[in-house]
């Protein structure tokens, strides 16, 4: 029942005969991984790859828009560099963004990888890029989060949620998080006390966090919920603020949201 690599082919990756069911997963030849490198590209012998919910949606044919091949991040050892790459060499350990990382060899742009920190395993390195880049983009580039501000992270025990929680605390913000009750111990282990934790399954978080902040609410909300949960999150910005939507099922028009709240 195991998936077997194609015989005699070194460049292959986990892909699909057709989207819609995981039964269609297969290890298929990937000749482009053996192609000549462009100016700023590197070839990497993959040692580990990170799997994201996007990969699951992609495999099931449920991802909105074009998602590309399975596998968006990973870590490995550089085997070749393009003519414009001067700061990496074969043998260097790197981690970062790849298109099609579920295979033994992958090519990527040098600008979207970094060296693996000393002491990290390839598995740790492979699981880091997408969630922390998403968190950084949300909190710093879009949210402009500053020390002393308050931020609500929905689904805070998920991958992006845990990364955002850590980054927001590093930036000096007061962090509130929601998760299903069975995952509250995870949030406690990351430094949140019970006053800063609420359920993501009910709307109780709105009153709970308004009370905890004396009615001030939040400066930034990172949302991944839908429908009435979105409304409750928006009401947690009574002084104005930044509401960042990461979900795909309840996209609203920013101008209408701004007018209503």
- Indicate the structural class: alpha/beta
* Overall morphology: elongated
- Whole-Å distance between the termini? 54 Å
SSE ordering:
EEEHEEEEHHEHEHEHEHEH
SSE topology:
Layout: E1 12-16, E2 25-29, E3 41-50, H1 53-59, E4 73-81, E5 93-97, E6 105-109, E7 113-115, H2 122-126, H3 129-142, E8 150-153, H4 159-170, E9 174-179, H5 184-189, E10 197-199, H6 204-212, E11 220-223, H7 228-235, E12 242-245, H8 254-260
Parallel strand pairs: 8-9, 8-11, 9-10, 11-12
Antiparallel strand pairs: 1-2, 3-4, 3-6, 4-5, 5-7
Helix pairs in contact: 3-4
Describe what this molecule looks like in 3D:
This protein is an alpha/beta fold and 261 residues long. The chain has helices at 53-59, 122-126, 129-142, 159-170, 184-189, 204-212, 228-235, 254-260, and strands at residues 12-16, 25-29, 41-50, 73-81, 93-97, 105-109, 113-115, 150-153, 174-179, 197-199, 220-223, 242-245. β1 and β2 (25-29) form a beta hairpin. The mean pLDDT is 95.
